Amino acid sequence: MSTETLILDGNTVAGAIKQSLETRIARLAEHGITPCLATILVGDDPSSATYVRMKGNACKRLGMQSVRIELPASTTTDQLLEEIHKLNADPLVHGILLQHPVPHHIDERAAFDAIAIEKDVDGVTTLGFAQNAFGFANYPSCTPAAILAILQHYNLPMEGKHAVVIGRSPILGKPVSLMLLNANATVTTCHSKTANLEEIVRQADIVVAAVGKPKFVQGSWIKAGAVVIDAGYNKGNIGDVDYEACLPNASAITPVPAGVGPVTIATLLKHTVDAAERQINL
């Protein structure tokens, strides 16, 4: 292991974000408001259930409220939309998170876009994506926002750097590409159809792996001094980056677990507090 490689500890970054929220939550309490995140889980996918439980526990630890809506896998799109509309209309709910993925028979995009923009704390709506592209989203997608928070926390420059993003999903690859572009990086977005992927990655000053394949990014792909951000999470606590192989060349790297994941949850909590403050123009 290289002693010079900076390990980007997500728990440290998440802790700083949560600490900054404590006084804001106390201030909201003085106005009789408890920030509230509503989570919707459709079906019985064990991984999704774990993620929802983690988010609820994180809320409770900070003195926030968590409302869990659990729906059977047989739920129709219309039934899901009805639940979302109820939460939109509830003034005590400040943020809404629909756990991805939903069962295949549900129109997930219609469900995401039914979430009111002022409660879209996970940055999943089409309007939220567009606002993020223009650089003024109140709540960009949480994992992309977490990635930028890590880079900023460790004072890793983005301006003028060549960032290569591997993945183009609408809630990770595409929005993080846009956010890096807005931070004045030069961005190449790669995907499963990209030719000569390894050669492109070797040119990167910043590599963001968001492809959903365990240990996909190889050590030989990383040029000396590159910053490696692993946004993947696969079965067995394995990221999208071959961590041990990439470590010697990287100047900084996120581990999995304890990298991007904790910061994503902290960002979700921050967005919910932001939404509660905006509700009363605080």
UniProtKB/TrEMBL annotation:
Signal peptide bounds: none
EC number annotated for this UniProt entry: 1.5.1.5, 3.5.4.9
Short name of one Pfam family: THF_DHG_CYH_C
Swiss-Prot/TrEMBL catalytic activity: (6R)-5,10-methylene-5,6,7,8-tetrahydrofolate + NADP(+) = (6R)-5,10-methenyltetrahydrofolate + NADPH; (6R)-5,10-methenyltetrahydrofolate + H2O = (6R)-10-formyltetrahydrofolate + H(+)
Keywords from the UniProt entry: Amino-acid biosynthesis, Histidine biosynthesis, Hydrolase, Methionine biosynthesis, Multifunctional enzyme, NADP, One-carbon metabolism, Oxidoreductase, Purine biosynthesis
Known pathway: One-carbon metabolism; tetrahydrofolate interconversion
Any single GO BP term: methionine biosynthetic process
InterPro entries in the record: Aminoacid_DH-like_N_sf, NAD(P)-bd_dom_sf, THF_DH/CycHdrlase, THF_DH/CycHdrlase_cat_dom, THF_DH/CycHdrlase_NAD-bd_dom
Molecular function per GO: methenyltetrahydrofolate cyclohydrolase activity; methylenetetrahydrofolate dehydrogenase (NADP+) activity
Entry GO terms, CC: cytosol
Tetrahydrofolate dehydrogenase/cyclohydrolase NAD(P)-binding domain residues: 141-279
Residues reported in the UniProt entry to bind NADP(+): G167, R168, S169
Residue ranges occupied by any Tetrahydrofolate dehydrogenase/cyclohydrolase catalytic domain in the UniProt entry: 8-122
Quaternary organization: Homodimer.
Role of this protein: Catalyzes the oxidation of 5,10-methylenetetrahydrofolate to 5,10-methenyltetrahydrofolate and then the hydrolysis of 5,10-methenyltetrahydrofolate to 10-formyltetrahydrofolate.
Family, per entry: Belongs to the tetrahydrofolate dehydrogenase/cyclohydrolase family.
Protein name (database record): Bifunctional protein FolD
Organism listed in the record: Paenibacillus nanensis
Source organism phylogeny: Bacteria, Bacillati, Bacillota, Bacilli, Bacillales
Encoding gene (name): folD
